[in-house]
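Service request form, structural biology core

Requester: graduate student, group of Dr. S.
Request type: structure prediction, single chain
Budget code: on file
Notes: please return the result as C-alpha cells.

Sequence provided:
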Amino acid sequence: MTIWSVLLTWLVVVGTYQTVKPLPENININSADYKVNADELDFLGDITYTRSDSQRVSEQEIFDTIIDIIDTAEHYILLDMFLYNSNKGKDFIPYRLISGELTDKLIAKRKSNPSIKIDLITDPVNTMYGGSPSDQFRALENAGVNIIVTNHSKLRDSNPIYSSIWRTFFQWFGNSERFGLFAHPFGKDDRVTLRSYLRMLNMKANHRKLIIADSDGEMVTVIASANPHDASSAHSNVAVMVKGDIWKEIYLTEKAVAKLSKKELQKVPEHLIKKYPQADSDISVRVLSERSIRDEVYNILENSEQGDRISMAMFYLTERGTIKRLIKAAKKGVNIRIILDPNKDAFGHKKNGIPNRPVAKELLEKPDGKIKIRWYDTHGEQFHTKMIIYEKRGGGSSLLLGSANMTRRNIENFNLELNLLINVKTESEIIAEALCYFETAWGNKEQLNYTAPFEQYGENSALKNIIYRIQEFTGLSSF
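Core staff response, request fulfilled:
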C-alpha cells in the first residue's frame, strides 16, 4: 500500500467518523411540553419594507424587548448570540449599531448592579476564529461578563471533504491575533492569519440566538432568529418571549455548550430556581435543538392532511427531506404558502440566488403549482425569518420558530440551533400574531412593498440547481 493510499484511507476514516460521531450530552434535545398561559407568551417581529416613495422602513421590537429585559434583570442574564460584532461589508451603512447598544447595556448593568451574573456564549466567527480581537468582548470581560467562545471541534463536521484535511494537518497550529497578513473577510479594518481562513472553511457555527434573565421577579426567555450584528440590523426576523420553567431546559443545553468549550456557566441564584405552577391551559411549549427541529418539521409535514394550511417564512430552504415532504404534502391537498429570501443581498454585496431560487423552482413545478411562493423583496437587507405556522383544518395550530434555517447544516446535527415549538388546541393570540406577521408580508398590507411574485426573481437555471445540490450534499457552502 502506497503512502498516498494510506493517506486517502486516513482522510476517509476521519471524515466519516467526524460526520457521525456521538454528540455531547444535552445537544439535540426535544424537551417535555410545558403548559403556559396565553399572557406568558409574546410574539416579536422585526420587519423591513419599502413605501411607495421607495423609502425603506424598518419596524423592530426584538432587541428593544431584549434590552428592556436586561434593564429589569436583577440577578442573572444568559445570552447565546451567533453574530455579535460591528463588522460590515465595504461601504455598507448599518441601520442600527445594535452590537454597541447591547454591549453598552450589559456593561451599564454590571456597573449599576455589580452582583448580577452575566454569561455570554458566542461563536468564534466574531473573533475570526482567534485571529482578530473583539474590542466589545474585551470590554465585557473587563466589566465582569463571563465570555464563552464555542469550541466547534467537539461538534460533527458538515464539510467532511475539507474538514478531514484540516483536522489532519492544520488544527494543531492553533491561531494568533499577531502576524496577520490577510484582509479580514468581513470588512473589519484588520489583518488576520491564514490559520483564521483555514479554520473558517470548516463552515461550522453555534447559530443560536437567545436570552434568559430574571425580569421583574420571574424568569423570561426569548428565542429569536435575530443577531446583535450591526450589518444585520435591518433584517426581518421573528422571536418568541416566554415566561416560566421552560428556561431550565434551555439553561441545561447552554450548559452543555459551555462544557464542550471547556468553560462553565455561572450558577443561577437558588431563589430563581423555583417551580412555577402548572398552567391550566391548552397551550404547550417545547424546546427543540439541532436534528430534533428537523424531526418535528418532518412530523408536521407527514401528518398534515387535505385542507390543512402551512405558512412558511424562511431565509434558507434547502434540506432535501423537507423539500420532498413539502411536495408530498401539497400533492395530498395541504395548502402551502412559502415566503423566501431571494438570496440577492448580503451586506452591500450581490448574491447569485443560490440556493433558494433553484429550490423554489422545484417546489413550484413538482406539485404542479400547488405550492404558492412569494419572494421577500429585499433592498440591501435580508429576509432572515425562520418560521413555520401549521393550522389544522379541524382546529389546533403549531408555531415553530428560532435560529434554524431548513438546511442540512442547520437541522442535521452539525450546527448548534435552538427553536421553540408552540402547540395550541384552539385559536390563540400567539398564533394570530404570527399569522398577522406572515399575512402582512404575503399580501403587501396597506399597499406597502413587502413581497414580490415568484416571477420577479424566479429562475430556470440548470447550472445553479447543480451547484446547489452539490453544495447541500457535500457541505461546501455557507448555507
